[in-house]
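hey so i finally got around to running the thing on that chain from the lab meeting. sorry it took forever, my laptop kept dying and i had to restart like 3 times. anyway pasting the input first so we r on the same page abt which one it is
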Amino acid sequence: MRKWFVGMVVGVWAMLVLLGCQGQAPAPTTAVSGTPAVIDEVCGDRSRLASTLHFYNWSLYMDDDILASFKEKCGVKVVQDTFASNEDLLAKLQAGASGYDLIVPSDYMVTIMRELDLLAPIDYANIPNFANIDDRFKKPPFDPEQQYTVPYQWGTSGIAYNTKKVTEPIESWQAIFDPAACLPVPGLSLLNDPREVFGAALKWKGYSLNDTDPAHLAEAQQAVRAIKKCVTTFDSESFADILLNGEVAVGHGWSGQYAKAIEENPDLTYVVPEEGSVIWVDNLAIPKSAPNPYTAEVFINYLLRPDIGARLTNYTFYASPNAAARPLINPNISGNPSIFPPPEVMDKLEFLRDVGEATPLIEQMWTEVKSQ
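ok and heres what got predicted. didnt touch it at all, straight out
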């Protein structure tokens, strides 16, 4: 989701082993009054819990039943607002939103938020279930001292298509970026995300998706411009739904949502192109302005329970970094190579990283593409 820090990886799976996946802000809430100071395994010190936790998350990224069960056990209502991109999340915080207790930035955005001093250190003593996290996802390059993040979900970016409407198997980004190959009817959807789309074009051209050479970025921009006539929509929220309902035949998006769509229609399939693509890790983090950091840590600890971690992946269809949850995940999900890719696919993936001074150029090029 996923989804500019780590840089080009020669074998992402090997790297993961070394790691070892604008409106008004909500008003702050106060602790539950009159609650006795009782410490328990699930809810911690109940006297310190807020009555409401404000959670800013990606769309379609949380099972409401999990939120209901947390309220039932701990008496805390989780109010969830959603965003469609890391940039939307950053803009909201930079605009002064100070009521959120918990957010979900992707790997590269953690780097940016750390540099902007927007994140609060996490007290891992309040999160004993952090021990359940696979060692491959601990102390990642975007949080090397493990101070600010807890991994939430991870996945890949790739191409999904309807095999009844696309007769030749798709193996390459060529299917999207070759003007002769892209399908004007019923169409093509691309993520509404400049780094993802230009990154895919860069991979097709043989470059790193983190390439900042202006000439190479111009090639990527031209590749997107050349297929603009084929693009039905740029969409980072309902891209799986529009493939499922037949509005498009080919889509560019994130693995989990496409996996859910494939469950509904087995004529759909998902592929990581042979040139490679994006791997991303979304993370739980606490804004520096959070009114209720302790309640956020208790909620994070709840999400890291094996049963809850499994329920989350069974709902989102995104891979879990929770090793203790893996045996409890639906075998159709845990055994799905589109969700938990094999090593030979992992070797072709890169993390997006913060491209620094190239960011304004990329944003300008994206605006030009969208407005043409």
